[in-house]
Amino acid sequence: MRMSMATGWRAIGRAHWKNRTWRALVSRPCRRQIRGMHDVQTQYLPIRRDAARLVSALLVDESPQPLARIATPSPCAQLVARFGPTVPGGVDVHLLGPQRRVRRKHVGGGHRAILLRLRPGMQPAIAGVAPSESIGSAIAIDDLWGANAANRLRAQLAAAMDANAAAALLQAAIVEQASSARGASPATPRLAFALARLQASGVADVARAVGVSERQLRREFRDLLGLSPKAVARLDRFARAVRAGQSIASPSWAAVAADAGYYDQAHMIADFKAIAGVTPRALLAELRVATPIGGSGFSRPPPDASATLPTPARRTPRR
């Protein structure tokens, strides 16, 4: 049975930003730094040394007011802990699987979340479920680690006195889970190497570079990410096009398409409609109203907590 938030974060879940309980969680200089559009706060936290091989980014996202939120798709899963007055028991932990579509949601006021973005290939060891089985889904931690472990973690999070303490608990939990698993696949280092080169090269070139067949490379991507190399490259092109469009007041969409790696503008528009459901122009208009979910590709994280895929200097357009 889930515990209520008897201490610490119980007050946080019910408090507005002006409430001194939540204000105590984040230093004043940091509050000034992360206060942004619609007064949403996103704070990147340092990653523990023993969790660094499992987690690529760790952040706290806080919505003091009810807001429309939006997030870019990502090939990597996230472990999410939510705190708020409408969350059952006051605290909820779930795995958000790889996402192939833009997500839109309405977040109630007074809600906070801690998000751990998992490194490519680490989901099976941490969650015990294949990425292909969690695409586009949110899976309760009870269904991954069992009721006893889930209840213990929720109780610990409910007693946490601040965001750093809660984040440390989540990191300790995934380190424990990973240590009891069979270990990372031997293909995981190869996956990271392939991801870094996939943006500027075709699948055949990447397979040769890592020393495997195209068929094996595709199988390893599906086993460790749940997506094919082509699907991962598609999401990356889309995210690059969005960021390029946001960085220019009146973007030339033909130039944005070429720089992002699309064959032409028509191919880019088709991708936007498939992934976001709207045209590039309509999505940019939406982003001026809806607030990006912290850590998504629609927001700009600091260099040490950037998105999973590195940035090449220039890319060769592909059909």
UniProtKB/TrEMBL annotation:
Pfam families assigned: HTH_18
Stored InterPro entries: AraC_XylS_family_regulators, HTH_AraC
Coiled-coil parts of chain: none
GO MF: DNA-binding transcription factor activity; sequence-specific DNA binding
Residues covered by region (Disordered): 294-319
Record-annotated HTH araC/xylS-type domain positions: 203-286
Alphabetical UniProt keywords: DNA-binding, Transcription, Transcription regulation
Biased composition (Low complexity): 305-319
Protein name per Swiss-Prot or TrEMBL: AraC family transcriptional regulator
Naturally occurring in which organism (per UniProt): Luteimonas aestuarii
